[in-house]
Design brief:
heterotrimer; A mainly alpha (206); B alpha+beta (586); C alpha/beta (279); B: 586 residues; alpha+beta; Zincin-like; seven-stranded mixed beta sheet; five-stranded mixed beta sheet; 20% strand; globular; C: 279 residues; alpha/beta; Rossmann fold; 2 domains; six-stranded mixed beta sheet; four-stranded antiparallel beta sheet; 8 helices; 32% strand
Chain lengths: 206, 586, 279
């Protein structure tokens, strides 16, 4: 099959998987474009601009990275836990490209949100860079754990727990061990790549 | 039946491994790991409080796993057909309850071991520890069990476990910070936000001081019971069980009781208006405009109070009825200082006629109806979170306006250089006839002379009568009275750094008494009430007593008696720097 | 075209448990039934052939190692099948066509034919979650037959199918067996008897028998008899197959250890049970 054919094939499969998510596929849009701005608007009635910027950072780090793996979890669910998923394992040697495509789609979907935030709240683009690095790290973790345990639940729960406590309890623990710098963008990207690699290794056999 | 359920739990590695791990880790943490906690009472308590969220989370997860097996294996379909679904699950609940009790007992065992190690062996302390263990550990863990039970009904494990985490997050610090951030300045919102504070702060400030220890008042019980009953209501409602109505009513009752006024003095995991360390600062942030220390003796004081006849009822809040004898009888208005937390409910004159009054902030203005006013009776009630007066403890020093003082005085000093309660005592001698009614096992002491102590119904009371320039009342189950060098010393047995029976402290104390004698203000045949160590350092010097800690008392006495200074004042250079810093910030 | 799968010394171990042990056999064009009790290793062997598991030994298809064979030449229906509940039947079939690299121009016809074959063409726009268990099974069979497959592995294909569908299934695989190797794993002996040309019997990870139906029947020739309740104490009895009422009296169909006089006619099931009980 030619490259063009293979690409068309891939896009068709992405589209079918997108359709297969049903209404759940809209959750990231709901969160990023309604819940998050709505909450900030409510906050703006009670707090001044400086505090609002703080809350924006807090809420963004709470919601945006975890939403980045939403679509990934849904597509990996059939692949790891679906009834008869071994059929898919015969024909599809890895979901890496699908995962990266959905991650890229998510980041692209955030562009309008980013532009608004930079305009209205004067938020630095570096902040979004940090968030996307964290999203990449999450995607790698999900990929690795899903194939390690053949379960998206076992993959999603640790990532979700990390997301809730990354900058609180987990940060304190890392600080005590003098390794809190691993929560920087560079380390997130690096560890994400390693986790993707481990996930690819686990994917080789059912 | 129980054996069957226990076997089911033991044979499931996803359940038994976390249980064993949790118990093993708890035993190691409590009995073999020091971490520098055990040198003082606060440390030991902080060690226990730190573990609670983690144990709560473990039980959340374990409970979820146990009850989810009904959903997972589709057993619930057959159980529901026979209408024994929730009834059948109660065996697992009882087993979990036993596990909860076991871990609570572990915590209690640790505390008792600690107390005996430190030489504390008082019965009230052990009963108090039991109460704390039940409210802050036993019931909190029970809540975790019930939440896990409720969420286990969700078939999709991904959704169920995500909700588990989300629920845990709702009660934890990051979310609380968010909630507190938007409720600042709004008293009802702040109070509502404290409903989510089921985990107590594990900072050293968790213990108020060594008179009061950690707050174990009813408000905490109502908070946790509200959540328990709410979760049970939801659980039974989903199971279409009629008992849901009862749980719902119980939840509403607990919610109403939670919002009742309380004098409980406690610290929260985040900064909040109801947090004892910040209550006054939040209030005065809005109210205080000056930046200097106002002299208390000269402002709007046109009259004197010659005698006080006060009845105090110490309960969840302080209720008081104060009869004041006034010196100057023909003024248009009489201005008193009464701390803003105490709300006046009634003012009558010597004939029993109601008088018009206005209470604004810390000041009460009474307008006589006609003619002279020789006596005024003021009824008020309320509670300060800092100077507490509840069934768990009393700390009402003479410099604090918990009874009406003549004139307008500064109650709280809040400027660039000082943040503290005003340390000045009223200054005028008056005759005090005070009766303090209280419940429980408090030992109540005052600088005034004790005349009578008896019981009246469910209250015990002590009557004090003597002449003084100020009145200090302290109460705690752990107080002791001792005579040291002809000075009556009152202190808490649980004090470590301020315990006068320690050899080095005794020397310090004697040195302090000698200094006072040199300064011309000997304390012989008078009272020294050793103040517990806490934030917003408070002390006061009265003619017949001193309320202070041991360390620093000598230097503070010199500053006061020799130079008339009660507050830290920076020198000229530092003052300029501080002013510049404030301007930059503004 | 003659296809061939050659299995030499196939072994598979999961941690300490040996699931397959020294399997040697050859599959050629035709329908093969794999019979065996639960835990015999049937599904594991099929997964080794599909390349899902690593294994010891060799599996070669048409001279090439199975791992090097294009996966699009293999069709597989697993024991449980119920993927993509939110997709419609047509969408799911499109997805599998895509996976099997069937050109887009041909997909429409291929899917139509497959759905006609399993009698699901009327459900092409229905969501998979709305289909009954039997329909989902038929859909699984349909996706296994998609494309230019040389090997089709069906694990319990008739589970959940009604009698009419089971006959239809038999006809489908009979029609498709030309130029293909079809391997059907089941423990329903009637299906094997009806559909398959060759039978392989497995137990405890080992191959017990490989041959035609007739050869398997021969195994129990002369050893089947009917006894009354009082005669069941005989030591010569290998296995009591079943009981039924005959002339108002309970009668037992038993397999004897040795051939007997006036034996009843044996069938594939008898041969299968003989093999199992003797190994």
């Amino acid at each position: 099959m030619s490259f063009e054919g293979a690409l068309k094939n891939k896009m068709t499969r992405i589209l079918i998987q997108w359709r297969g998510m049903k209404w759940l596929r809209y959750i990231p849009f709901l969160v990023n474009y309604f819940i998050l701005p709505g909450t900030l608007y409510a906050f703006s009635k009670f707090v001044d601009n400086y505090e609002l910027e703080n809350y924006f950072v807090q809420l963004s780090f709470l919601f945006i990275p975890i939403m980045s793996i939403w679509w990934i979890v849904l597509i990996l669910h059939e692949y790891t836990e679906g009834k008869g998923s071994e059929v898919l394992w015969i024909y599809e040697k890895g979901k890496l490209t699908d995962v990266l495509i959905f991650l890229a789609m998510y980041i692209l979907s955030l562009i309008p949100f980013m532009l608004c935030a930079m305009n209205v709240l004067m938020v630095d683009i570096a902040l979004f860079g940090q968030m996307f690095a964290q999203s990449f790290f999450y995607a790698g973790t999900i990929y690795m754990l899903a194939f390690m345990f053949h379960s998206v639940t076992a993959a999603f729960i640790p990532v979700f727990a990390y997301n809730l406590y990354a900058y609180d309890r987990i940060y304190q623990l890392l600080e005590k061990a003098n390794i809190n710098s691993i929560q920087s963008s560079g380390y997130y990207l690096f560890i994400g790549i390693i986790f993707f690699g481990i996930g690819i290794t686990y994917h080789k056999n059912l | 039946m129980y054996v069957l359920h226990i076997k089911k739990i033991i044979r499931n590695p996803a359940i038994i491994i976390p249980i064993i791990f949790m118990f093993a880790l708890s035993i190691y943490y409590l009995f073999f790991y020091s971490g520098g906690y055990e040198s003082y009472l606060q440390g030991a308590l902080c060690k226990l409080l730190l573990a609670v969220p983690y144990v709560f989370f473990c039980f959340l997860f374990i409970s979820y796993e146990i009850f989810h097996s009904y959903c997972k294996n589709e057993v619930h379909e057959s159980l529901c057909t026979n209408r024994i679904s929730i009834k059948y699950q109660r065996y697992d609940f009882y087993i979990l309850f036993v596990l909860d009790s076991m871990i609570t007992l572990l915590f209690i065992a640790y505390q008792i071991r600690f107390y005996y190690g430190m030489g504390y062996s008082m019965k009230p302390l052990i009963w108090y520890s039991l109460k704390v263990a039940i409210i802050f550990w036993g019931l909190v863990i029970l809540l975790g069990i019930i939440i896990g039970w409720g969420l286990s009904g969700i078939q999709n494990k991904l959704v169920g476990m995500s909700l588990l985490l989300a629920v845990f997050y709702l009660f934890d610090r990051p979310f609380l910070q968010l909630l507190m951030g938007i409720s600042q300045g709004r008293l009802p919102a702040c109070n509502f936000a404290t409903l989510f504070c089921i985990f107590t702060s594990a900072e050293p400030g968790a213990i108020t001081d060594t008179y009061y220890l950690m707050s174990a008042e009813h408000v905490h019980l109502f908070r946790i019971l509200f959540w328990i009953f709410l979760m049970l209501f939801l659980l039974f409602q989903v199971a279409k069980n009629k008992a849901a109505v009862l749980w719902g009513i119980a939840a509403i009752v607990c919610l109403i009781l939670f919002f009742q006024p309380t004098g409980a003095s406690y610290s929260l995991p985040v900064i909040n208006r109801f947090d004892r360390w910040h209550a006054e600062q939040f209030y005065y942030d809005n109210a205080y405009t000056g930046d200097s220390i106002v002299s208390t003796k000269t402002d709007m004081e046109d009259f004197n109070i010659t005698a006080y006849d006060i009845d105090f009822w110490v309960d969840d809040i302080l209720n008081a009825k104060a009869l004041l004898k006034i010196s100057d009888r023909n003024l248009d208005q009489y201005c008193f200082t009464l701390y803003h937390c105490y709300h006046v409910t009634n003012v009558v004159d010597q004939k029993g006629e109601k008088l018009r009054y206005q209470q604004k902030g810390d000041y009460l203005t009474v307008y006589p109806s006609n003619g002279e006013l020789s006596e005024v009776t003021i009824e008020y009630k309320g509670a300060s979170q800092y100077f507490y007066s509840t069934g768990q403890g009393i700390m009402l020093p003479a410099n604090f306006e918990y009874y009406p003082i003549a004139g307008k005085r500064t109650t709280f000093v809040y400027n660039n250089y000082n943040t503290c309660f005003s340390r000045e005592v009223a200054g005028h001698n008056a005759e005090f006839d005070v009766t303090v009614y209280y419940k429980g096992d408090l030992k109540v002491y005052s600088n005034l002379s004790e005349k009578e102590a008896a019981r009246k119904g469910k209250y015990r009371y002590i009557r004090y009568k003597s002449t003084s320039d100020g009145m200090t009342i302290v109460g705690s189950p752990y107080l002791l009275e001792k005579e040291i060098d002809q000075v009556r010393v009152i202190y808490s047995q649980l004090e470590h750094d301020n315990n006068p029976t320690r050899k080095d402290n005794m020397e310090e104390l004697r040195d302090f008494f000698e200094t006072l004698e040199e300064l011309g203000h000997p304390l012989y045949n008078k009272t020294f009430i050793i103040a517990p160590e806490n934030n917003l350092q408070n002390y006061c010097f009265s003619e017949n007593h001193i309320f202070n800690q041991i360390f620093g008392a000598k230097e503070q006495a010199i500053q006061y008696y020799k130079y008339g200074k009660l507050y830290d004042e920076p020198d000229e250079e530092d003052r300029d720097l501080m002013d510049q810093a404030e301007d930059m910030f503004q | 075209m003659e296809n061939q799968i050659e299995i030499k010394n196939l072994s598979k171990r999961f941690r300490q448990k040996r699931v397959l042990e020294g399997i040697n056999c050859i599959f050629k064009n035709g329908i093969y039934g794999i019979l065996g009790p639960n835990g015999a290793g049937k599904t594991t062997m099929m997964r080794c052939i599909t390349g899902l598991y690593s294994f010891q030994g060799t599996i070669e298809m048409n001279g090439k190692k199975i791992k090097k064979t294009p996966q699009t030449e293999i069709g597989y229906l697993p024991q449980k099948f119920g993927l993509f509940p939110e997709l419609t039947v047509w969408e799911m079939m499109t997805y599998f066509c895509n996976l099997k690299k069937i050109p887009k121009a041909d997909q429409y016809q291929v899917i139509e034919d497959a759905l006609h074959m399993v009698n699901l063409i009327s459900q092409k726009k229905t969501k998979i979650s709305k289909l009954s268990g039997g329909m989902v099974r038929r859909l699984g069979i349909a996706q296994a037959f998609l494309g230019n497959t040389k090997v089709i592995l069906l694990d319990e294909p008739t589970a959940g199918l009604d009698p009419e569908e089971r006959i239809r299934f038999k006809n489908i695989i009979s029609n498709m067996s030309k130029d293909r190797i079809i391997i059907v794993s089941t423990h329903i002996v009637e299906d094997v008897e009806a559909c398959c040309d060759h039978i392989m019997v497995m137990n405890r990870g080992k191959k017990l028998f490989m041959g035609t139906n007739e050869k398997l029947i021969e195994y129990a020739d002369g050893r089947i008899t009917e006894l009354k309740a009082g005669d069941l104490t005989q030591e010569d009895i290998l296995f009591v197959e079943k009981s039924y009422l005959q002339d108002g009296e309970k009668t037992y169909r038993v397999i004897m250890k040795h051939p007997v006089e006036a034996a009843a006619k044996s069938n594939v099931e008898d041969g299968y049970l003989c093999l199992l009980k003797e190994h």
